[in-house]
Amino acid sequence: MFVEILTPDKKLFSGEAEYVNIPGRSGGFGVLRNHAPIISSLKAGDVKVRDMAKKEHVFAVKGGIMEVRNDKVIVLAE
Questions:
Q1: Spatial distance between the Cα atoms of 52 and 31, rounded to a whole number of angstroms
Q2: Hey, what CATH class is 2-77 in?
Q3: 30-70, pLDDT tens digit by residue?
Q4: Are 43 and 63 in contact (CB under 8 A)?
Q5: Which of 1, 2, 6, 3 is nearest to 61 (CA)?
Q6: Do residues 20 and 49 lie in contact, with contact meaning Cβ atoms separated by under 8 Å?
Q7: What is the distance between the alpha carbons of residues 29 and 20, in angstroms, rounded to a whole number?
């Protein structure tokens, strides 16, 4: 799946990934390929992305929103 993590200042991550862990406002959850469409607000925490080379990237966020649709994850983070 394609993942983009954006802040008002810059793009933190853009590329293919096999797993994303999201700090959702109602609780953390993971996203794999072919996940059902979802929109969620984020609480402060870490967005973790495991890329196709199995390397984990961790991005601290203060909040924001995310959307999963058509095998694409977009995180708009603060």
A1: 14
A2: mainly beta
A3: 999 999 999 999 999 999 999 999 999 999 999 999 999 99
A4: yes
A5: 6
A6: yes
A7: 8
